[in-house]
Amino acid sequence: MRYRELGRSGMSVSEIGYGAWGIGASGWVGATEDESVRALHRAVDLGVNFIDTARGYGESERIVGRVVRERTGDEVLVATKVPPMNRIWPAPDGIDPVEAFPGAHIRESVETSLRVSGLDHFDVVQFHVWSDEWVGRGDWLQTVEELKKEGKIRLFGVSINDHQPDNALALVRSGAVDTVQVIYNIFDQAPADALLPACEEHGVGVIVRVALDEGGLTGRVTAGATFPEGDFRARYFRDDRPAQVERKVAAIVADLGIAPDEIAENALRFVLSSPAVSTVIPGMRTVRNVERNTALSDGRPLTADQLAVLAGHRWQRNFYG
After folding, report:
1. Which residues of the chain have pLDDT under 70?
2. Do 319 and 241 contact (CB within 8 A), yes or no?
């Protein structure tokens, strides 16, 4: 496993992190706790030292906390998220920060997460939505600083609204944030335009989510694909969207001259090819997922020619809507 600096924090994180939404049984159907625990332990065995969870991920915080507490002697960094008090995802324009992240709500959420996980602190606490309209307003920053002083959190970050990378530029430039989490993948390359350079300039760590487009960039979402009832992907990949994805992935495979089953590997290597990226957090619910993804931390980025090819495969759309 290779490691990268998490912005200016002084923390070193595995470039392949662990996205723990899927193990919480709150949006993805099919995970079992026994396999999730095995997968988490296997990830740590293979050098993963960064796990991303959230208060809103069902049982995820509890399961992650259990495994981290069992790994005596291993330094495993845990990031979690505070949901907006108004429960609105993503944050729309015109919302006052006191409606989404008042100080009392932030503190209550963090303390609940600590209790559920059994941990004594979190290495990163992130707001689960963000709006740059909130910079310099509200009492959220004061509360964050107090929680840092109390040792309950080490770093503060935000999870940027889906497909809105520029909606954190003011925050990054303000110096108030340690990390940002953002969607960045072959389809959504917009963060590379302004956000990633700004993070490099200001020493902000970058945590990349949805590197595999919720499964779209694995090659396994094809025309007619269906998902279990209650699984969020049934909505994300509804109607003719699987067929659209299949065509887009086939074009990438053809242009790169790779085998269809190599698309996921190349999608993760695309993300890691950016020096601004600190860690990528693919969702992993099985030991097999863990072993396949961590094997990519081998120091072999995509070539300039491959990146030039992929630059032509931007696909602007929002399947979350």
Report:
1. none
2. yes
